TrEMBL record:
Superkingdom classification of source: Bacteria
UniProt xrefs under Pfam families: Rhodanese
Protein name per Swiss-Prot or TrEMBL: Rhodanese-like domain-containing protein
Rhodanese domain mapped to chain residues: 27-117
Annotated InterPro entries: GlpE_sulfurtransferase, Rhodanese-like_dom, Rhodanese-like_dom_sf
Length: 130
């Protein structure tokens, strides 16, 4: 793979927090944001504002909650976590249009973009799965 092919593929498969905020402002109904993080509930209590919380461990049983007609944006913890990449691959295999939010919630919070406290997912095992 040539460098140009790599960067084209990377840009097609990811979206930065800044680009997502801009795109969402221009076309708010186009996107469906999913927090796919696993792990202890107490560390998952903060989510990106308006994100749908569907942990990777519940994805298969909750697939019906994800709209086929929107662009799906998935995120996990940080650049070191590959849970969002696993979810993106799974959703792509099931016919969804998907991008991974680069940097996960860590990058989002670093840019001081809006977050909310969430008490969803209280029954998720404490196993991260990254």
């Amino acid at each position: 793979m040539h460098a140009l092919d790599y960067f084209n593929a990377r840009l097609e498969a990811t979206i930065s927090p800044m680009d997502y905020v801009k795109a969402k402002q221009m076309s708010p109904e186009k996107y469906f944001l999913i927090d796919v993080r696993n792990g202890p509930t107490h560390v998952r209590s903060v989510t990106i504002k308006d994100a749908n919380v569907i942990p990777e461990q519940e994805l298969q049983s909750r697939l019906n909650e994800i709209p086929q007609d929107k662009e799906i944006i998935v995120y996990c913890w940080d650049v070191w976590c590959n849970t969002a990449a696993k979810v993106a691959k799974f959703l792509l295999e099931h016919g969804y249009k998907v991008k991974e939010l680069t940097g996960g919630i860590a990058a989002w919070k670093e840019m001081n973009f809006p977050v909310t406290n969430s008490d969803q997912g209280n029954n998720i095992p404490d196993n991260c799965g990254c």
